[in-house]
Design goal:
With 377 residues, the protein is of the alpha/beta class. The chain is built from 11 helices and 20 strands.
Length: 377
């Protein structure tokens, strides 16, 4: 196996699903967000773990991600959060994927695909309550409701929206979005007797901070993976477990004399005779170049500074203070080692970004090693 790899603890994923389930009302379903290769963790394996722990719906961003789950043998309901494209509408019927509609044309598109397939298109309606991206609002929402009433080939199974600002200390905009969302639900049969569509609004931050948004289902993303999506650290659930670690083995250890440069553009100079270790991964694996001269890596449980620029396939760290460091030793770029830890939150802060980008950009050329495949609970 390659000397740079990810370890994914599936027992942590299952634990987090159950921890989230314990904090929402009884009967509220878990719609696990597994888009973007499950935030870099590995979508098929994470999806199985989520379903094992009780998640009843899996959410992806594009149809191809849903097809990947079906081809991996996962038969749980899969909602594609992004809008359907005319060229792929048939995929939803062939693979029993749930489409998201936010425009009357989407409804007509899915109705045509259902007629062609001789089946029924399963859909959720997305409302724009203040995010300003995908989602119907105002007159478009009204037209979408009328169009759907004329499309017996389309079955509306859910209605949802997405919160734009739920990590903000000030929740006034999120409360306004909730008000708008609730005011529009009646267009889609939510206020009628009998069976009605599933209602879902809460993302990770709202699950933790806004119990009034929990409704029929909640959609955990970052917290599903034990990550803080951006709210105050003291609000983070103590019981959640990070599931991902990034590890590598030292490929080279060499001595660099004081005053000598390391890496492209001579972006770092040794202030003393130094021992420099090279790790065999870089920005082509998704490790951010913005961490150049701005991150720590664990070796033998000690923090070693990343020195020089992050290259496409290599980074260099200063292991002078780890005298025994040698080729083949383990380095931890994300995760724990001998009581010390480098978190995704730390790297995101250093890189000036969010945790979702750090893990979401970890490429598939990094092998995933899955731990805890068996549910020991």
């Amino acid at each position: 196996m390659r000397a740079a790899f990810l370890e994914i603890d599936l027992s942590a994923i299952r634990h987090n699903v159950r921890a989230i389930q314990a904090m929402v009302p009884e009967g509220t379903q878990i719609a696990a967000i597994v888009k973007a290769n499950a935030y870099g963790h590995g979508a098929p394996e994470v999806s199985r773990a989520c379903v094992e722990a009780g998640a009843t719906l899996l959410c992806v961003a594009i149809a191809d991600e849903g097809v990947e789950l079906r081809e991996a043998g996962i038969d749980a309901p899969v909602l594609v959060l992004g809008p359907p494209d005319p060229g792929e509408a048939d995929l939803y019927l062939r693979h029993d994927l749930i489409a998201t509609l936010s425009d009357p044309e989407h409804a007509r598109m899915m109705a045509a695909a259902a007629r062609e397939a001789g089946g029924v298109a399963r859909v959720h309606v997305k409302l724009d309550s203040g995010m300003g991206r995908h989602g119907a609002r105002g007159a478009v929402a009204e037209e979408l409701a009328r169009t759907l009433s004329d499309c017996p080939e389309v079955r509306v199974e859910g209605v949802f929206s997405h919160l734009a600002d739920a990590c903000n200390e000030d929740l006034s905009w999120s409360c306004e979005q909730l008000r708008r969302f609730l005011a529009t639900l009646g267009l889609f049969g939510v206020d009628t007797a009998g069976k009605r569509p599933m209602i879902h609004l809460a993302n990770s931050a709202a699950i933790v901070r806004m119990p009034t948004t929990h409704h029929d289902a909640v959609r955990p993303g970052a917290i599903l993976y034990g990550l803080n999506p951006g709210f105050a650290p003291e609000l983070m659930l103590d019981d959640l477990r990070p599931a991902l670690s990034l590890r590598a083995r030292l490929a080279t250890v060499k001595t660099v004399e004081a005053g000598e440069p390391v890496g492209y553009n001579r972006a770092w100079f040794a202030e003393r005779d130094s021992r420099i270790a090279v790790l065999p991964l870089g920005y082509a694996d998704g490790y951010p170049r913005t961490l150049s001269n701005n991150a720590d890596v664990l070796v033998a449980g000690r923090r070693c500074p990343l020195v020089g620029l992050v290259s496409m396939d290599a980074i260099t760290i200063d292991v002078t203070d780890v005298p025994g460091a040698a080729i083949g030793d383990e380095a931890v770029l994300i995760g724990a080692q001998s009581g010390e830890r480098v978190t995704v939150e730390e790297l995101a802060a250093r890189a000036g970004t969010i945790v979702e980008e750090i893990v979401g950009r970890l490429t598939r050329r990094l092998p995933r090693v899955f731990l805890g495949r068996e549910d020991a609970s």
